Amino acid sequence: MTGGSGRLGRSVVRALTDDGHEVISVDRRPLEGLGVEQRDVDLTDADATSRAFLDLRPDAVIHLAAIAVPFSAPEPVILNTNVSMVWNVLSAAVEAGATQVLAASSPTVIGYGAPTGWRPQYLPIDENHPVAPWNAYALSKQVIEAAVRTAVARDGDSVTFGVFRPCFVISPEEWRGAPTQQGHTVVERLDNPDYAAVSLFNYVDARDAGDFVTTWLKRASDAPNGSVFFVGAADALARESLQNLVPSYLPGTEHLAEALAGSAPAFSSAKAELLLGWTPKHDWRSELDAARTATETAPS
Ligand SMILES: NC(=O)c1ccc[n+]([C@@H]2O[C@H](COP(=O)([O-])OP(=O)(O)OC[C@H]3O[C@@H](n4cnc5c(N)ncnc54)[C@H](O)[C@@H]3O)[C@@H](O)[C@H]2O)c1
After folding, report:
1. Ligand 1 atom closest to Cα of residue 85
2. Considering only Cβ atoms within 10 Å of each terminal Cβ, which end of the chain, N or C, has fewer?
3. Are 141 and 133 in contact (CB under 8 A)?
């Protein structure tokens, strides 16, 4: 896999090793404490990537490495880095004989948060919803999805490809109070809906995202080659129903949001359930309850 040292990457490493896979992470950042081999390779370097993969001869490649936060680097750097990496990794994986390749995209491809205004065409959003990226990160993810379609057209007779769009990833430490990717704690995100509103309150537990990867490896051939999957929790990261919250941030969506009664999320993972049998197992209410109980019962 690539990007095993990352926020999501570490949970994917754990899920893969727990499921009995021999895992090697290719990443520039060291991977400590998980007991798997790490190769330090700059994946924007096509020759170095090819050499590393030919040496490793992986059966399957999970491609997570990316500049993973919008606006965390200059826009051209994000676009060029993420696009060159996916091209290099897909090519090197096929050249080295891998028979399964899964790449990480993102729900941001949908286009929420665009400064010129954005409205969903329908809710909940699924994989058929049109994409409309408005920044380099989201555009790079759209290109990653297109690169996978290109690879299917070229190598799909011998290799099974897939794409997943993990929602906002929350790791076990973050349930216990560590800052999330955007800097706020989970409880702060819940207390102030402004923080999660832009991404329509989407989230997924990191272990569930890891479980999606192991499930995909077992079941990918049950889905059309190159299938794209949203991977999100079964509920929204909000204390109030999105039926009310979404229209308060996106006026004019009252009618569409009627489909989001109760705790329903704005992004549907029904395709992953239908084609792969994957369902999320963790939700914020039980995770925060468990974290609170652990704190209360910890010896002082
Ligand atoms: N974390 C989320 O909430 C989230 C949500 C949607 C999609 N994603 C996607 O999932 C993937 C993993 O996300 P993450 O949160 O673990 O990101 P992260 O930033 O924590 O980790 C990314 C890893 O990629 C590595 N990397 C970057 N450039 C590299 C290069 N040139 N060569 C080799 N390695 C390089 C980094 O060293 C890092 O370890 C990314 O593709 C991201 O866009 C993440």
Report:
1. 31
2. C
3. yes
Q: Which domains are assigned to the chain?
A: 7-297 (3.40.50.720)
d(CA 120, CA 147) in angstroms, rounded, equals 25
What is the distance in A from the centroid of ligand 1 to the CA of 172?
Answer: 18
Q: Are 59 and 99 in contact (CB under 8 A)?
A: yes
Average pLDDT (158-172) is 97
* Ligand 1 pocket list (CB less than 6 A): 3, 5-9, 27-29, 42-44, 64-66, 68, 85, 104, 106, 166, 168-169, 181
CA 149 to ligand 1 centroid distance, Å:
21
Judged against a pLDDT cut of 80, whether residue 127 lies above it is answered with yes
Residue 288 CA, ligand 1 centroid: distance in Å: 25
If you average pLDDT over residues 34-52, what whole number do you get?
Answer: 96
Distance of CA 64 from the midpoint of ligand 1 (Å): 5
| Of 179, 173, 182, 191, residue with least CA distance to 240 | 191
* CA–CA distance, 249 with 251 (Å, rounded to integer): 6
Strand partners, 162: 102, 227
Q: What is the pLDDT of residue 300?
A: 63
Whether residue 197 contacts residue 240, with contact meaning beta carbons closer than 8 Å, is answered with: no
pTM for the full model? 0.97
